[in-house]
Amino acid sequence: MKAIELVCTGELKFRGLQELENKYLQNINYYVKFSIKKLKEIRQAEEGFVKEKEGAMFLKEIQQRDFVVALDEKGKKMDSRHFAAFLQEKISYHPARLLFLIGGFAGLAPAVADRADLRLSFSDMTFAHDIFRIVFLEQLYRAMTIIHGGKYHR
User: Span 132-146, mean pLDDT?
Assistant: First the structure.
């Protein structure tokens, strides 16, 4: 089974969001092997310092053959069906992991963004990281149901 992993910083702070995360993890894992790697959140006011430290942690998680998608507000936009088609193609034909990255409050370090094979934007708006993590999981689950002809997407 193909592996998809989300790499992000920190723990979800609200119990309701943690419950949603667990529900989506269960639902997504019905279709594909999916996991979340939660990196230590750097608590520092200086954004450059945070980007550098988190960037080093992100780069350690990336393997040479991974297809890396940086979730970035400046990235390419896709609707849900195009996202599903993208996932289906990567799941079917890419030989290694599909890795999604959500940076911390300072964003992704340039070295991490440069390593990404694709920068993907879900919106021009800025979201709280906890909320965006749930939005990403919902869209991943929606894409899996589109790929497998489920009724959830309708």
Answer: 97
